[in-house]
Write a structure and sequence with these properties.
The complex is a heterodimer.
Chain A (H helix, E strand, L loop, with lengths): L1 H8 L2 E9 L2 E6 L3 E6 L13 E7 L2 E7 H4 L12 E6 L4 E6 L1 E9 L17 E7 L2 E6 L1 H4 L9
Parallel strand pairs in A: 2-10, 5-7
Antiparallel strand pairs in A: 1-2, 1-8, 3-6, 4-5, 6-7, 9-10
Chain B lengths: L2 H28 L5 H20 L3 H19 L6 H22 L10 H12 L31 E9 L1 H5 L4 H9 L2 E8 L17 E8 L3 H7 L7 E7 L26 H6 L11 H4 L4 H14 L10 H27 L7 H24 E3 L1 H18 L3 E6 L4 E3 H22 L3 H6 L6 E10 L2 E8 L6 H10 L11 H6 L22 H10 L3 E7 L3 E9 L4 E9 L2 E6 L3 E6 L5 E4 L3 E6 L2 E7 H4 L13 E6 L5 E6 L1 E9 L13 E6 L5 E5 L1 H7 L15
Parallel strand pairs in B: 6-8, 13-22, 17-19
Antiparallel strand pairs in B: 1-3, 1-4, 2-3, 5-7, 8-9, 9-11, 10-11, 12-13, 12-20, 14-18, 15-16, 16-17, 18-19, 21-22
Helix pairs in contact in B: 1-2, 1-4, 2-3, 3-4, 3-5, 4-5, 12-13, 14-15, 15-19
Classes of the chains: A mainly beta, B alpha+beta.
Chain lengths: 154, 713
C-alpha cells in the first residue's frame, strides 16, 4: 500500500503551514493529531525555557513547546488567539504553540531547497525551504525541536 | 510473542490458579475435614500441572509432579492414610512445586535441584515405591492389551461394563476430543465400540458445532469402575455418561462390592464422588465409610452434581490489564468531566433544585458508582499473596529450626492488583523478620510458659476506604532497652533523648538499624525494616508497630485501595496549585513566627514541640518564585519522608483535601525533579503532585538539611 502511495503521489507531501512572529513555517501533516486553542499550561519546575508547561488533553498530560522561544524568535505572552498544534512522532505527544495556522500545502521533495547557511538563525531546526506565492516557508525538522526526554534528572 | 510463548504464558498463569487450588485443598485437609472431593481437586490440580508441564518439556516439574501425583493417587484410593507426616510432606511438595514452576517460568534452569531430591525420596517412601523409574506423562493406566478372551479363566477379576457416552456441545467447545477418550477407554481392556448415528440430522439441517454422535462401548476389563470414570474425569459435566456393570465375571473376588454383584449400578456422571467411594471405600479417607456409604451418598451426590454443573461454565475471565487500565483512565476522565460540568453549571447561575441540577447530581452518583466498579475489577483477593507468605513462613521456620503455626485471616480482602504485586517483597521481609527475630526458640518459649509452637497471624481487612494488613507474632516483643542502646551506638538518637515506648519501637524502621546480634541468612543484614517502610510508603501507605513485651509484636500496614488514585492535599504556592500526598503529611499549622530561627545565611528552622525542623520553601525549590520572608500568613506542612527525615514545607495556602487520579508525566515529557506525578483538577487544569522526599532532599537553598529522625509527637 505504501508503495502505491509513493508511486502515485511521487513523493508529494501534505504540509501544514503556520505563522510564528510573522514568519512562515510548515511540517508534514501526518505528524499532526489535532489543533486546538490556547489554554493556560501548568508550569513545570526546572523545565527548559521553551517548555510552557503541561496541559490536559482529554486525560493525557501533554507538554507545550513554545515554538517562538524554541526558534529564538520574539516571544509574546500567548493569548486566546494562539493555537496549539498537537503532534505525535514516535510515541510522545507534544503540543506546539504557534501564532496561527495558515494553510495546508502539497510539495514534492524536489521543491524543497536546502537551508542557506546562515549562522545563528535556528537553522539547525530546519530541514529546508519551500517557495509558495513569493513567500518563503521554512520546513521544520520536528525531531530536533521536541524536548529530549528528561531522564532520571532527579 | 510467538504462539508457543503465548501458550507458555497461559500455562504459567493457569498453574498459578492450580497451585492456589492445590494449597487450598491442602489447607482444608490440614483442618482435619477430609472430603474425597478435596483430595480429588488436589489431585486434579497436580495432574493438570503435570500435563501442561509435559507439553512444554519442563522435565523437572513433570518428574516431581508425577511423584506427587502418585502419593495423592494412593491417598484417594485409600492405600495411604492421611496423617501429620503425609500432610507435612505434601505441604512441602506443594511449596517445592511452586518453586519449580517459578524457576521454569523465569527460565532459571530446568535442572534437577538439590532441594527436590530428598522430597522426592520422601514422596517415594510414602507410596512405598523403591525404584526411581523415569517419569513419563500419563503412565497411570498402562494398557494391558492381552488377548484376554482366550484366558477368561485366569483373568478372574475381569469385569464387563457397558458404557454409554454422549458428549455435549460444550465438550468439543472446550477443546476435548471424544476419540481420545474412547481410545483411552479401549486401552483398559477389550472393547467393542458402536457409534450411534440415530441423532444425525439431515445434511441440510446439520449444525457442524452440534454434538449428535453417541457411543456405546462394551468393555471387558480388569480395571475398576473408578478407573473407567477417571478416563472421563476431565469432561465431567460435559457429557452424558452411563457406566453399567453388565455381567459379573467373578465379581465376588472384589470384596467391597459383594451385594452389588449381578445388580447393575447405573449412575449419571456427576456422582464421581460415589464412584470413588463405593468400589474402594477407604478406611483412610473416611473411616466410617462402609457403614455410612448409603446415607451420606445422597447429599454428597448433590454437592458433586452442583460442582459438576458449575465447572464447565467459567465464572472468571482473563482480561488484559492494559484494557482495564484504559477503562480506568476513561472513567477518570468521566469523573473530571462531570466535575467540570458541575462547576460550569454553578458558574452560569443555574438555580439549585432545577432539572439540570438534579440531573447533574444523579450523574455524579452514577459516575462515582462506575468508578468504584471499575476499580473493583482491578481488585483481587490477597489470598494468593497470603498463601505465598505461609510458604515463606514455613521455609523460614525450617531454616531457623523453629516450629510455628501460620494463621491467615481475611484472605478474601480485595486490593488493587498492582498493590498486591508490590506488597510481596515487604511482606516477605516482615514475615521472615517475625520468624527470625519475633519468635523465640522453643526452649525460651517453654521457659516463659508459652507453647513451644510459635504463632504468626497474618490478617487483612478493609477499614474506612483503606486496607489494613497486620502481621502479629506471639514472640518476645521488642526489647526496648536493647533497641535504644543500639540506636544510641549507631548515632540514630541522642543519648539524652526523651522517647516514649512507641518511639523506641519505631526506631527499628530507621535506616541502618538491625537488632540481630548475629547475621543470619534470613534477615539481619541491616536493610530490614527501613526498606519495608520505604516500599510501603511508595505505595502511599504507612507502617507502624505495636509491641507488648513478652507477648509479641504487631506490625500494621495501612494501604490505599488502589494506586490509580491518591489522597492528596490541594495547596497553593507561588500562584500554582499543587497536590501533596496525605500519606507523607504529619501535621499542618500556621507558621509560629516566634518559633522560627535563622540557621546560616539561607536556611531557617522551626521549633515544633522542642524539635528543630528545617523549613523548605516549596515555592523557591520548585522555581515558582524567589525565596520569601517567612511570615505568619504562610502555612507549614510537617512532612516525614520515607527515610524518616522530617521537614517543614512552607506553602501559601491549603485549599482542599481530596482523592485525585494519578497521571504520569513520563509518557510524554519525562521525570521532573521534585514531582511524583500529575493530576487533573476539577477545572480541567493539571496540577503537579509533589514528591516530598525529593523536595526535602533538594533542600532549601541547596543547604544541608538537618536530619531529625525522631521527633516526639
Amino acid at each position: 500500500m505504501s508503495e502505491m502511495n509513493e508511486n502515485d503521489a511521487e513523493d508529494v507531501n501534505e504540509l501544514i503551514a503556520f505563522r510564528i512572529a510573522e514568519q512562515d513555517f510548515c511540517f508534514n501533516i501526518m505528524s499532526v493529531r489535532e489543533i486546538r486553542g490556547w489554554t493556560p499550561a501548568t508550569v513545570i519546575p526546572q523545565a527548559p525555557p521553551y517548555v510552557r508547561g503541561v496541559i490536559n488533553l482529554r486525560g493525557a498530560v501533554v507538554p507545550i513547546v513554545d515554538l517562538a522561544a524554541r526558534l529564538g524568535l520574539e516571544v509574546p505572552e500567548p493569548n486566546a488567539r494562539n493555537v496549539i498544534i498537537i503532534t505525535q512522532i514516535d510515541g510522545p505527544i507534544v503540543g506546539l504553540l504557534v501564532d496561527a495556522v495558515s494553510d495546508i500545502l502539497s510539495a514534492t521533495d524536489k521543491e524543497v531547497q536546502p537551508t542557506p547557511d546562515v549562522a545563528g538563525t535556528g537553522a539547525e531546526f530546519l530541514s529546508g525551504i519551500i517557495t509558495r506565492e513569493d513567500r518563503m516557508i521554512r520546513l521544520l525538522n520536528l525531531g530536533a525541536i521536541l524536548p529530549e526526554k528528561t531522564g532520571a534528572a532527579a | 510473542m510467538s504462539k508457543t510463548d503465548e501458550l507458555r504464558a497461559t500455562f504459567f498463569q493457569e498453574s498459578e490458579d492450580l497451585l492456589e487450588q492445590l494449597t487450598d485443598g491442602l489447607d482444608e485437609m490440614s483442618g482435619g475435614e477430609v472430603d474425597p472431593e478435596t483430595v480429588n481437586s488436589v489431585f486434579r490440580a497436580v495432574h493438570s500441572i503435570k500435563g501442561g508441564a509435559g507439553a512444554f518439556a519442563l522435565d523437572a516439574v513433570v518428574r516431581f509432579a508425577h511423584r506427587f501425583e502418585n502419593v495423592l493417587d494412593a491417598l484417594r484410593n485409600g492405600e495411604l492414610a492421611l496423617n501429620g507426616n503425609v500432610l507435612d510432606v505434601m505441604m512441602r511438595s506443594s511449596d517445592h512445586l511452586t518453586v519449580l514452576l517459578e524457576a521454569a517460568r523465569d527460565g532459571s534452569g530446568d535442572e534437577e535441584d538439590a532441594a527436590g531430591e530428598p522430597l522426592l525420596a520422601e514422596l517415594r517412601a510414602l507410596t512405598g515405591e523403591e525404584d526411581d523409574t523415569p517419569a513419563e506423562v500419563d503412565v497411570d493406566f498402562t494398557p494391558m492389551t492381552l488377548a484376554l478372551d482366550e484366558f477368561s479363566g485366569p483373568a478372574a477379576s475381569e469385569l464387563r461394563f457397558s458404557v454409554d457416552f454422549h458428549p455435549n456441545d460444550e465438550l468439543y467447545r472446550s477443546g476435548n476430543e471424544a476419540v481420545f477418550l474412547l481410545r483411552e477407554l479401549c486401552a483398559l481392556g477389550e472393547a467393542e465400540v458402536d457409534c450411534d448415528l440415530s441423532g444425525l440430522p439431515e445434511f441440510d439441517s446439520l449444525d457442524p458445532e452440534q454434538s449428535v454422535l453417541k457411543w456405546h462401548v462394551a468393555l471387558q476389563t480388569e480395571a475398576s469402575e473408578t478407573a473407567l470414570r477417571e478416563v472421563f474425569e476431565f469432561v465431567e459435566g460435559l457429557c452424558d455418561l452411563t457406566i453399567t456393570e453388565t455381567a459379573g465375571d467373578g465379581t465376588a473376588e472384589l470384596p467391597p462390592l459383594p451385594d452389588l454383584s449381578g445388580q447393575s449400578v447405573t449412575e449419571t456422571t456427576a456422582s464421581e464422588m460415589e464412584a470413588v467411594d463405593a468400589p474402594a471405600p477407604s478406611a483412610a479417607v473416611n473411616s466410617s465409610a462402609p457403614a455410612l456409604s448409603a446415607s451420606p451418598a445422597a447429599p454428597d451426590k448433590k454437592v458433586a452434581a452442583d460442582s459438576a454443573k458449575a465447572q464447565p461454565v467459567a465464572s472468571t475471565i482473563r482480561v488484559d490489564l492494559h484494557r482495564i487500565d484504559r477503562m480506568i483512565n476513561l472513567v477518570g476522565e468521566l469523573v473530571i468531566n462531570q466535575a467540570m460540568l458541575t462547576q460550569a453549571v454553578k458558574r452560569d447561575g443555574i438555580s439549585q433544585g432545577s432539572d439540570i441540577d438534579v440531573g447533574l447530581e444523579e450523574l455524579r452518583t452514577l459516575t462515582r458508582q462506575i468508578q468504584d466498579s471499575v476499580m473493583a475489577i482491578r481488585a483481587q483477593p490477597v489470598k494468593a499473596l497470603f498463601q505465598r507468605m505461609s510458604r515463606i513462613a514455613r521455609e523460614a521456620g525450617t531454616d531457623t529450626g523453629k516450629t510455628l503455626r501460620m494463621l491467615t485471616e481475611g484472605a478474601s480482602t480485595e486490593i488493587d492488583k498492582t498493590v498486591i504485586e508490590k506488597l510481596a517483597d515487604p511482606l516477605t521481609h516482615m514475615i521472615r523478620n517475625a520468624v527470625d527475630h519475633g519468635l523465640e526458640n522453643a526452649e525460651d518459649r517453654i521457659s516463659v510458659g508459652k507453647s513451644p509452637e510459635g504463632t504468626i497471624r497474618l490478617s487483612a481487612a478493609h477499614l474506612s476506604g483503606r486496607v489494613v494488613i497486620e502481621i502479629a507474632d506471639d514472640g518476645a516483643g521488642i526489647n526496648r532497652e536493647k533497641v535504644r542502646k543500639i540506636a544510641e551506638e549507631k548515632g540514630l538518637i541522642a543519648p539524652d533523648a526523651q522517647l516514649t515506648a512507641n518511639d523506641i519501637d519505631n526506631l527499628i524502621f530507621q535506616p541502618g538499624f538491625s537488632t540481630a546480634t548475629t547475621l543470619t541468612a534470613l534477615s539481619g543484614r541491616g536493610v530490614g525494616m527501613d526498606v519495608v517502610k520505604k516500599s510501603i510508603q511508595s505505595l502511599g501507605g504507612r507502617v507502624s508497630i505495636a509491641s507488648d513485651p513478652g507477648k509479641g509484636s504487631t506490625f500494621s500496614i495501612v494501604l490505599p485501595l488502589t494506586l490509580a488514585v491518591l489522597d492528596g492535599m490541594v495547596i497553593e504556592v507561588g500562584g500554582q496549585t499543587v497536590v501533596v500526598p496525605i500519606s507523607s503529611i504529619v501535621e499542618t499549622m500556621r507558621v509560629p513566627t516566634d518559633q522560627v530561627f535563622q540557621l546560616g545565611k539561607n536556611n531557617a528552622v522551626v521549633r515544633i514541640r522542642g524539635n528543630y525542623v528545617p523549613i523548605v520553601d516549596v515555592g523557591a525549590v520548585m522555581g515558582y518564585r524567589p525565596p520569601v520572608d517567612i511570615t505568619g500568613s504562610h502555612v507549614i506542612l510537617l512532612v516525614e519522608t520515607a527515610d524518616g527525615v522530617r521537614a517543614a514545607l512552607l506553602i501559601d495556602l491549603i485549599h482542599d483535601q481530596r482523592q485525585v487520579v494519578i497521571k504520569g508525566l513520563e509518557e510524554n515529557y519525562g521525570q521532573v525533579p521534585g514531582v511524583a506525578a500529575a493530576t487533573i483538577l476539577g477545572d480541567g487544569r493539571i496540577a503537579l503532585i509533589l514528591d516530598p522526599s525529593a523536595i526535602v532532599g533538594s533542600g532549601a537553598g541547596g543547604g544541608a538539611v538537618l536530619s531529625t529522625p525522631i521527633a516526639a509527637e
